[in-house]
Amino acid sequence: MIRTMSIWRWQLVFTGSIVAIVVMITAFKPQTFANPFIVAGIALVVVTTLITLAVPWHRLPHVFATAVPLLDALAVGFTTNAPDIRLGFLWVFPVVWLATYFTMPWVLGGIAFISATLVLFADQSGTSADILLRLLTVVITLGFLGVTVRIGSQRSRAARRLLQRRSEQVNRAADRAETNQRRVTQIVDALSVALVVVSAGGRILQMNDAYRALYGRDRFGAALPSAGVEYDARRGTAVPPARTSIARAASGEKLQSEEVWLFDGKGQWRALEVSTQPMATAGGGEDVTLLVIDDVTMLREADEERRALAAVVSHELRNPLTAIVGHVDLLRERDDLPGRVPAQLDIIANAGERMQDLVSSILDQNGRTVQEPFEPVDLRDVVEASAASYAPLVSGSRQELLIEGAQSLVIYGDAFRLRQVLDNLLSNAVKYTPQGGHIRIDLDTSTDGHVELAIIDDGVGLTPEDLPRVFEPYFRTDSAVRAGISGTGLGMGIVREIVSAHEGSIDISSEVGLGTRVTLRFPQHRVKEARA
To answer: CA 207 to CA 128: how far, in whole Å?
Structure first.
């Protein structure tokens, strides 16, 4: 359709020129129409124009369009028969048309065709030299014009193709950039962390859905009727506009996990942690800051619930423990206790005191799992004390518990927490070893100077799938759950934390049906410090 419109445009411009000339001839020299060649030329132009407008050029091959400029050239050739009217200049139209849209052979062919019409129809008055001069002048002029227009047309087309390719590249780059921008926006909107970009002038340049939902903003950044209000504390005082998170970020203030309370549009209090991050800007541009707002309400509530639960549990445990320890102390003061009863009461008293220490550590607001500074601790004493507390369970299960290796193995550490490690590991060994099984505790110094303590049992063991998960909170094997073996799945995690606090390591190897070996290793420098 574009080619059809182009052909129409060229032909109508040429026809318009002919019409204008006809009007001028009619006005100033009407006798010219007595020449039949003039009338034939004008008639041919009209017929060619009508045919041009009627033909569906978009359905025909490209070469068919050459017929139009050639017919125009023939029409102009007819008009050159009038010696007193110089209409040969109209050959410029068909020559320029051919040079613009067709190859050089077509241009040269068109000029040859024009030369033939000039010989056949032009006025032949004058000498042979005059006729030849007119012919050569027309041919050379039209040839120069055709070549010049053809070269310019080729350059123009090359430039147009280059611009088109560059335009396509720019469009593809713009499409990719737009697609990437949409992806980034979707990713940012999917984040639970609220993000907002603010300029130094306080304008919100960009925000994500989490910020809109949290602060009650529309997609343009304007505050909704249910917008959130920042406070300096829960149920405290509203923050003035100049001290809001947005205002502080716009002013360039550096914030790092600063606490802010928000009363949102739903009437709920939100605990927020606010941080700022400067962003890169174009040279000389306005400073831009990224404001990162993390909603930590659930974490704060969980911490509060955890502390409340710990306080309640610890308080409720402390009362019966106090009664147990107190009555045991009363029994230990008696002189008529038979046989091994005093020793058994000592074990009960030590266990009660350790439970009281555990309760106190739960209530400790510092939250430390290991008490510093460390003191010299003999692991052999810790092992024997733990073994003595589990002796009734071992005896009741007809198991055999052996302690082998070094008679004294001193390190720097927290004796209370190390005892907690031994109790957890020995408890697992007793629970997961069947009746009549064997448990052994080895104490030694390794070849690389580390202190080693190993607890080996011939119990049920762990599968290769379960072994990497033993330190996960609340993890228990399916076989233990089915067998009804008591436990919470928290002990091994506590053990690892305490061992790590002593700069030690823990290694577990196990096979189903053959048993488990737990090896604790502590660095040698602890021993050297203890002996110093």
So the answer is: 88
DSSP one-letter string for 211-271? HHHHHTB-TTSPBPTT--EEESSTT--BPPGGGSHHHHHHTT---SSEEEEEE-TTS-EEE
Q: Which amino acid appears at position 443 of this protein?
A: L
CB hemisphere CA count around 124 (13 angstroms): 5
Confidence of residue 217 (pLDDT cuts 50, 70, 90): confident
Greater model confidence, 93 or 125: 93
Q: Which residues, including other chains, have CB under 8 Å from residue 384's CB and lie 6 or more apart? A: 403
What pLDDT, on a 0 to 100 scale, did the predictor assign at position 323?
A: 62
Residue 339 Ramachandran class (φ > 0 left, ψ -120 to 50 alpha, else beta): left
Residue 217 forms beta bridges with which residues? 223
Nearest to 422 by CA among 502, 342, 360, 485: 502
Q: Residue 168: CB partners within 8 Å, gap ≥ 6?
A: none
CATH 3.20.20.220 fits 375-531, yes or no: no
At 284, is the pLDDT very low, low, confident or very high (cuts 50, 70, 90)? low
Quick one: 191-295 is in which CATH superfamily? PAS domain (3.30.450.20)
